[in-house]
């Protein structure tokens, strides 16, 4: 952490960016809208650190929103990308690395088939089209505060940036975005996460019309919410009604274990979606699962889905290097969890000595500190009243001390294998002062 305190170069870039890009950013939460202040323009990233254009160096808890589980600029990933670069950047024809990554993903996850796309959004959108094509049904079910990317029918009671940035703000009525016709939104039924009885009832009444239930197996996009065993059981019961169960592992895949949340929680989804880590920091998404369903995808089957850059050789190389590194070092997961638990305990202790109410949810290397006075946060509705103003003050206090937290109350932070005691101690030291500043 080296903080000059100056943000003048970021400010200058932000003004230039606002003149040419909506809101000055290419993805909304990056604009710091809910926490205020100037977004830092990053020029380089190394291990657990980000360096901005003013020369400030931060401990990074965003990890590019999930992909950088090995830390930034990991040598194996860098070398794999460099190796791929020397042989061409895009072929528009099948290439060996696509087969290798698909084989590795099927081996690690038990999915029988996998199709690569370019983002998590494409993965969930394609998986839902597939479920509709396979079942011949129109409706889908998602859960309040879960985010599955920005396809039209999924921007309904969605989490992530929509919890703090959308017009109408928190809990805005469906659809959560302008430009989504009500007719599209009407095909999306919304349930409450961790409410098994409501899901059972919905499926009892409408199950015959429902193509798929899509869910975050551990939610990151309403802040971290952990599923109860009863809710997981209800999710699996939907399969009895012929509904395709889709676990959106874009965030949790290869993060919570080598087999993601599915492995950690013993899930049996029909389909899964991946993104983030599967591309090792380059743009990759994927969906996969049961062969009888996946074989409905074009050109094998009648459900169309395509991509000019899908299976891109650089992106496949980065994904392969990342997953191979994780496979070769499974101890990483224990290390990540230990760091995260110590961080959670340290934050709780620091908040409590400063008299700031805080509920910390964490699993594996995902964590959210909710600024709320309640013993447990399990649902979107329980998370929503968090004190976003107190969070914003804390966020700024941390940033000014060189800790780059996720710039929204309703996000997970991500720990990487490059985080060690050095970063943990510095973070907790910063947190002790930052919590005191929340109330001052
Ligand atoms: N699903 C989940 C669970 C996500 O967290 C995200 C992105 N944060 C997406 C889908 C969309 O992925 P992408 O931003 O790559 O389109």
Automatic annotation (TrEMBL):
Requisite cofactors: pyridoxal 5'-phosphate
Residue positions where N6-(pyridoxal phosphate)lysine is found in the record: 276
GO molecular function, one term: glutamate-1-semialdehyde 2,1-aminomutase activity
Domain of life per record: Bacteria
Primary localization: cytoplasm
EC number: 5.4.3.8
UniProt keyword annotations, A-Z: Cytoplasm, Isomerase, Porphyrin biosynthesis, Pyridoxal phosphate
Pathway noted in the entry: Porphyrin-containing compound metabolism; protoporphyrin-IX biosynthesis; 5-aminolevulinate from L-glutamyl-tRNA(Glu): step 2/2
InterPro entries referenced in this protein's UniProt entry, alphabetically: 4pyrrol_synth_GluAld_NH2Trfase, Aminotrans_3, Aminotrans_3_PPA_site, PyrdxlP-dep_Trfase, PyrdxlP-dep_Trfase_major, PyrdxlP-dep_Trfase_small
Catalytic activity: (S)-4-amino-5-oxopentanoate = 5-aminolevulinate
Subcellular localization, as worded in the UniProt entry: Cytoplasm
Subunit structure: Homodimer.
Family: Belongs to the class-III pyridoxal-phosphate-dependent aminotransferase family. HemL subfamily.
Protein name: Glutamate-1-semialdehyde 2,1-aminomutase
Lineage: Bacteria, Thermotogati, Deinococcota, Deinococci, Deinococcales
């Amino acid at each position: 952490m080296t903080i000059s305190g100056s943000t003048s170069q970021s400010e200058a870039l932000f003004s230039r960016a606002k003149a040419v890009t909506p809101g000055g950013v290419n993805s909304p939460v990056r604009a710091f809208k809910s926490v205020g202040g100037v977004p830092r323009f990053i020029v380089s990233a190394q291990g657990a650190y980000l360096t901005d254009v003013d020369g400030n160096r931060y401990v990074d808890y965003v990890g590019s929103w999930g992909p950088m589980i090995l830390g930034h600029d990991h040598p194996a990933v860098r070398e794999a990308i460099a190796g791929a670069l020397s042989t061409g950047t895009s072929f528009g024809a099948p290439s060996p690395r696509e087969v290798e990554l698909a084989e590795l993903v099927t081996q690690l996850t038990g999915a029988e088939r996998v199709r690569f796309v370019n983002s998590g959004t494409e993965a969930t959108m394609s998986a839902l089209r597939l479920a509709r094509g396979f079942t011949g049904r129109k409706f889908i079910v998602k859960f309040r505060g879960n985010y599955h990317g920005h396809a039209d029918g999924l921007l309904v009671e969605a989490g992530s940036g929509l919890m703090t940035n959308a017009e109408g703000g928190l809990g805005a009525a469906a659809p959560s975005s302008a430009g989504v016709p009500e007719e599209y939104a009407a095909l999306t039924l919304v349930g409450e996460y961790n409410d098994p009885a409501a899901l059972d009832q919905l499926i009892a009444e409408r199950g015959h019309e429902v193509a798929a239930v899509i869910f975050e197996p551990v939610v990151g996009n309403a802040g971290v919410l952990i599923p109860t065993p009863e809710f997981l059981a209800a999710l699996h019961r939907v399969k009895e009604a012929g509904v395709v169960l889709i676990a959106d592992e874009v965030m949790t895949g290869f993060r919570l274990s080598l087999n993601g949340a599915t492995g950690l929680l013993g899930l049996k989804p029909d389909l899964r979606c991946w993104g983030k880590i599967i591309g090792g920091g380059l743009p990759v998404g994927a969906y996969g699962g049961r062969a009888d369903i996946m074989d409905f995808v074009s050109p094998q089957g009648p459900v169309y889905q395509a991509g000019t850059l899908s299976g891109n050789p650089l992106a496949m190389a980065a994904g392969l290097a990342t997953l191979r590194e994780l496979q070769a070092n499974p101890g990483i997961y224990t290390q990540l969890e230990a760091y995260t638990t110590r961080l959670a305990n340290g934050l709780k202790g620091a908040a409590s000595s400063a008299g700031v109410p805080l509920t910390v949810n964490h699993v594996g290397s995902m964590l959210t500190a909710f600024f709320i006075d309640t013993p447990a946060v399990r649902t979107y509705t329980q998370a929503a009243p968090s004190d976003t103003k107190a969070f914003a003050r804390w966020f700024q206090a941390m940033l000014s001390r060189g800790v780059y937290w996720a710039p929204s109350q309703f996000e997970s932070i991500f720990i990487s294998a490059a985080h060690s005691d050095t970063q943990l101690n510095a973070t907790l030291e910063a947190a002790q002062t930052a919590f005191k500043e929340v109330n001052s």
